[in-house]
Write a structure and sequence with these properties.
Layout (H helix, E strand, L loop, with lengths): L13 H35 E5 L14 E5 L2 H4 L7 E5 L7 E8 L4 E5 L2 E4 L2 E2 L13 E4 L4 E5 L9 H4 L2 E2 L3 E10 L5 E2 L5 H5 L1
Antiparallel strand pairs: 1-2, 2-11, 3-4, 3-11, 4-9, 5-6, 5-8, 6-7, 9-10, 11-12
């Protein structure tokens, strides 16, 4: 006679509960990984790019109040400033304020504004981007490690012509593009205005 051993019968629902716990654990791990990756990407992007809102009319017609810009914060750690760059910097007389202007003079340059014409080292600039020719006259020699900047709205801009130069260490970055509002999206073309005039 062969004695039959009872075959254990799994309790109802046991394997299903284990599978559910496993899939829940997998789901939570994936959510956590996604959140960590999103945070890492956010901080990496934030280390490279800044988002800046244009607040006033000093850069009209190039930039309008209310527009939002993407700014490359590594531009001047990895490369050089060029004539014509649109830059964001900490205002030298109040570093808590950030200004947006166009670079006109680099260290050692002589900048002259005379009879509505801007010249750098004796070369008159071709500036189709300005609102109107400047109404002021003067000559400035740009010191070492500093920049001479002007707003494109020359006669309604607080800039180097009335408060002086911008130290290199005050630079935040280089404006790349307007990204908002959507109907104004454009890459900012930044000509080397001195070479273009030659």
């Amino acid at each position: 006679m062969i004695s039959e051993q009872p075959v254990p019968v799994p309790e109802p629902g046991q394997p299903q509960e284990t599978a559910q716990r496993g899939s829940l654990r997998t789901f939570l791990v994936e959510v956590l990984q996604t959140l960590v990756l999103a945070l890492v990407l956010y901080f990496l992007i934030d280390a490279v790019l800044a988002r800046v809102r244009v607040e006033n009319i000093s850069m009209e017609p190039t930039l309008q109040p209310g527009e939002f810009l993407l700014v490359n914060k590594l531009a001047y750690r990895l490369g050089d400033v060029s004539h014509g760059d649109v830059v964001i910097f900490h205002y030298p007389l109040n570093p808590n304020e950030d200004y947006i202007k166009r670079v006109i003079g680099l260290p050692g340059d002589e900048v002259t504004v005379q009879n509505g014409q801007v010249s750098v080292n004796g070369t008159s600039l071709d500036e189709p981007y300005i609102m109107a020719p400047p109404h002021y006259n003067n000559t400035w020699t740009v010191p070492e490690n500093q920049l001479f900047v002007l707003g494109d709205n020359r006669n309604s801009s607080s800039d180097s012509h009335n408060w002086g130069f911008v130290p290199y260490e005050n630079l935040v970055g280089k404006a790349l593009l307007i990204y908002w509002p959507l109907n104004q999206v454009k890459i900012l073309t930044l000509p080397d205005i001195v070479n273009a005039a030659n």
